[in-house]
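Margin note: ligand = adenosine-5'-triphosphate.
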Amino acid sequence: MIDPATSPNGDSSKPRPPELPAKREVETITVPEGVTPAIEVKNLYRSFFGVHAVKGISFAIAPGQVIGFVGANGAGKTTTMRIIATLDYPTGGTVEVCGTDVVQYPGEVRRRIGWMPDDYGTYKNMTVLEYLDFFARALGYKSNDRRQRVEEVMAFTDLDKLSDRLINKLSKGMGQRLCLGRALIHDPEVLILDEPAAGLDPKARVELKHLIRILAEEGKTVFISSHILSELGEMCDSLLFINHGQIIHHGSADSLKKGSTSITQVTVEVADDPAKLVDWATMAPHVTFKEITKTGARIEIDSVDPEVISLVLKRMVNEGIPVIEFHKEERKLEDAFIEILGEIEASGQAIVS
Ligand code: ATP
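Resulting structure:
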């Protein structure tokens, strides 16, 4: 636990304001019994001069997991990540990386983590090789070991052909790979990546995603924030949603896509004019017409029961709709996120699946 009086910035020297909400209980759903979490955050608070950026969040991440950290601008992602990365102090609560407290033993934690900030400062007049060599030297690598490690990192991030290029001549994608390379030099067990894909074009995003997938296959724990939910869904074992400094959901992308609602969305294609389908959908029981499409319509069925869904299809066909496709839609992660926010506003509860 930190002594608030030693906190480096913000108003941590003040006691925690009484109006802050009580700790939300969020299960450590990803960590099996007896396993030391790669990251364990317990009742974490961080305030800056009256701005309560993080309000008593708790979560744990098992070793080898890839966890996406999702939230709107200002939700508290960077603040949380910076504390895990030993770059800021909590106002309250504790954080451990591989069982080591980030406040008491920051040096030990830094040996085990690789940190990629959302806005990294580079030394623009250095080459790729000089930059990585500089960090390898700072991390204590000597002579041949250092050369070998820098070469390995350049090969992994596909920067070996650019080793002599000045950093200010790199594209955004190359720069992000360089920053990832810097985070990897000491071969850390845990990677904390803050918005690594921000501002990248689709090709650069695919390249970065590929690298992260390899790192996950090597068994590294990856804690990654992003606004691009579809990408996180593909990459991550589970997603942690933060809103106004509180964890509001922790679950797999699949469970989010399925959703907890009692509605099934269906796209229907027909062999002739969709108008007939639209008329039918506005009258049929269990069905709500959503929108017309070029070749049919999107409808909602007020049930997830397969018998009800098949009954709707049967009735549609029996009543003369020339159906050529009847397709259950997966919810988009963005829709799931918005829906969860709506549920939270309505109930004030955190959701864990
Ligand atoms: P983004 O996606 O925009 O990066 P975020 O989820 O990472 O947002 P944070 O950067 O953690 O959000 O910010 C959370 C809140 O804390 C915001 O209201 C922000 O203005 C505030 N905040 C963060 N750092 C400081 C600071 N050093 N001083 C004052 N306020 C801060």
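Residues 9-10, 48, 51, 53, 71, 73-79 surround adenosine-5'-triphosphate (CB under 6 Å).
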